[in-house]
Amino acid sequence: MSYADLSVQICDRRVLLEKVGLAIKLGYEVIAIDVVHTPSKNVTKKKKKQKDQAGDGVMKACTLKLTDEELKSLQVDTKRVKILSRVTLNVSDSDQLQYLMSPEVQEYDIVAVRPTSAEIFAKAAKYVNLDIIQLEMEKSTKVITPGGLSEGIQKGIHFEIQYGPAIRDSSIKRYLISNSQLLAGFSKSRNIIISSGAERAIELRGPHDVANLGLLFGLNEAQAKNSVSRSCRSVLLHAEERRALKAAVALSIGDLQDDQKWVKNKLNEINSVETTEESSPKKRKLE
Fold first, then answer.
1. Cα–Cα distance between 239 and 158 in angstroms, integer?
2. Strand-strand pairing, 158-162 and 82-91
């Protein structure tokens, strides 16, 4: 069973290498370097297309890759350890969700959204080109909605609990535990992953310790272990499907065979939430 930490925060290169090195020593075999980005709000229709193409200034995924020299210094066995790129969009306005479609965002191995309200949470759960919804657990504000959870689970989206903020500030532990238990109750403990969100190496915990935290968060023993292993693997499979569907958008419907009808269904899902007033006919729902 391989263990994963799908959110190690991007930072100074030296500190980043320190965190990645410690994560490997702790037993993690999949580590995602996470770029947190806040897109612009209230994108005008006139500038929207240009903004989407530019990715609103989000860092390019290729800049997160570790060099051969860095991997050698960490004594990383690249056949055993995977180091991935991830982007997390802070979203407080529905217009910001449009940046999910930008090429710069979609080139990341993992795409996540952190909604700040129940309304944005429900809208984010409709997107199929999204892998993770990171939940704001360190406040009393409730952003989780049962309907959004149900829709997100159906689309294969996973919901993330990060324990790092509680290590940085012990005063939010009670919010983290109560909100996590609320999530576990509403979702029946399905599609939940636990990540560090570590800003410093000292905030990292081993996978078995994280699984024990899962028990406090309302998960049973098997679910807690899955939150740092099998459920993370499901996130990666969902991300692979997302990238495959991106390529499939270029196909014409006439090129699809009868046994590829699932592609049509997925394309319909994409277009139903991504079509805007200024969308071209090619982006409208396929008949």
1. 11
2. unpaired
pLDDT of residue 247: 62
Residues in the chain: 287
Q: Is 258 a residue whose pLDDT tops 80? A: no
The first and second tokens of residue 76, run together, are: 């990383």
59 contacts: CB under 8 Å, gap ≥ 6: 10, 35, 37, 87
* 12-41 average pLDDT score: 93
**pLDDT tens digits, one per residue of 183-196:** 999 999 999 999 99
Name the DSSP letter for residue 188. T
Q: How far apart are CA 166 and CA 182, in angstroms?
A: 17
Residue 162: phi and psi, rounded to 5, are -110, 130
Residue 279: CB atoms within 10 Å:
13
Give the Cα separation of 93 and 115 in Å (integer): 9
pTM over 0.90? The answer is no
Task: Check if the beta carbon of residue 6 is closer than 8 Å to that of residue 195.
Answer: yes
